Amino acid sequence: xxxxxxxxxxxxxxxxxxxxxxxxxxxxxxxxxxxxxxxxxxxxxxxxxxxxxxxxxxxxxxxxxxxxxxxxxxxxxxxxxxxxxxxxxxxxxxxxxxxxxxxxxxxxxxxxxxxxxxxxxxxxxxxxxxxxxxxxxxxxxxxxxxxxxxxxxxxxxxxxxxxxxxxxxxxxxxxxxxxxxxxxxxxxxxxxxxxxxxxxxxxxxxxxxxxxxxxxxxxxxxxxxxxxxxxxxxxxxxxxxxxxxxxxxxxxxxxxxxxxxxxxxxxxxxxxxxxxxxxxxxxxxxxxxxxxxxxxxxxxxxxxxxxxxxxxxxxxxxxxxxxxxxxxxxxxxxxxxxxxxxxxxxxxxxxxxxxxxxxxxxxxxxxxxxxxxxxxxxxxxxxxxxxxxxxxxxxxxxxxxxxxxxxxxxxxxxx
Amino acid sequence: xxxxxxxxxxxxxxxxxxxxxxxxxxxxxxxxxxxxxxxxxxxxxxxxxxxxxxxxxxxxxxxxxxxxxxxxxxxxxxxxxxxxxxxxxxxxxxxxxxxxxxxxxxxxxxxxxxxxxxxxxxxxxxxxxxxxxxxxxxxxxxxxxxxxxxxxxxxxxxxxxxxxxxxxxxxxxxxxxxxxxxxxxxxxxxxxxxxxxxxxxxxxxxxxxxxxxxxxxxxxxxxxxxxxxxxxxxxxxxxxxxxxxxxxxxxxxxxxxxxxxxxxxxxxxxxxxxxxxxxxxxxxxxxxxxx
Lengths: 415, 291
What we know:
Chain A contains 16 helices and 12 strands. With about 425 residues, chain A is α/β, with parallel strands linked by helices. Chain B has about 290 residues and is an all-alpha fold.
């Protein structure tokens, strides 16, 4: 009998422990709001590796100033959305999240808080706020541009203005034993960014993508894409295989002078700053179809998670305002994040040369837009990158066949 | 009274484990079956649409799924053979009385202690940069080039890394089997004039069948479900030529956000693995002999 009692006590104890482990499933398990309704902690989950360190420093300053702890979570970028999804589904979502583009806003629609009433909303540079169904759901990280990042000692942008001069330049470099242009193996650096040009040069790229999704037009029957295929063929013929090159090596070889141009954006500066460059760098437009306009857009947007307590939402908005309005926030944004501010009230003095070129282009208004923000969600890593790998592995595949292959996978992705 | 008490003791020990097993395996499994009848993008705030068996019907025509299934089968067969041949070979080697047998045993087992992800990254360096350097130095660029950018070689690279990792583990199981063979049987055979090969074929192999059953089962299920090495070594590339099923299902769910459809694939995947491994266990069990 005695044993039985002992057993019973043990059993109850075991059950209690187990129950306690599983009992944390309230609606806001990870809420930073204490019992008095005061906010003690907010969290930021963002996708840019380059800015995570300075952002953490800012978070510490903010905590000293206001007493509110800001938790910064980072990730390496490619899997941001799936990680966000896991956190949101387990009620451990961040208070401030990153919304890459309008396609992602569509998926996250039920979480995104309308920011139209923020005082900051009026300061956003024209066309740079992320709007979804008439609501302002994202504040721009910053304006970014990409294109041919070149070594000013080796390349004169005047020499590369169209297809013929582009191929000629690659050939000349090949003869000198220098790599003319390098892409790298990561999905966006391999095809994601460079595939923008034929879309962006359309009169109405959104309309074109809509028609493409519905199967009403084909890339292979559009002139800009046909030429783009030829460009890609020239890159394959005259330069190293991008599948052998990762981002680090791409930038490393550029710094060493072994590569004359890389297809990258102004964000590459934070990596170039790690080295002592003995030459100047510049950013020039990709000369598809004689294009001479820079391509600029917004790489990511700050959004606020509307599924939190109102107090936490307000705290998140306060933090975003502080980030953009305080002196130290503005200073960090320009000097540490190397962002070209997407706001009219932030002075952008002392930008690095690449960012300066982006800003000048953006101010002049003579730019072409980022089309990949309007691509079907995740089509770049899922479909376009594998097709491009095929192209770079198989020398017998012509540029024309490559574009036809892109048509095929695009259709597969939008079935 | 005592019977009653025994039952309670039994419950006490089994229940905690059962609860853990249920929360991390059984319940998610049934929830998974439930999800597979819906069209859903995986965000809990977005609507789930009931579509019945549509997800299952759709995947019959899914070329990428079928292709991925064949790749998985190819990978499994290749690694099944390689892992077990190597494992058995190592086991025979280290149980024969040679000087540094203990040291060799440790070395063969060592790779298994390294996690699959890290292992994949180490070998990624060997197959890409390492091989390129060897190729440059020896001039043998036909063999020593970047294996991970070749559609066929990338699969072999995956098999090699997986075998390198698993062979040591299987070796341990085979050693246990070999050591349980009574010495007098071997001695008697030796006195009767059986040579090494005859002893191996007529005594060791039949008595090793239980170990073989376990080893084949483990290699089969491990290699079917492989994800970590796959992710870190090739990430499914180049051009999806090494996208094995586990990775394909992950990509369907998190890459394309087809939660329900991906779940349907996972259920089919489960049924296939269960069927194949059960058949294998049944077949090899039949060949086991009792002393």
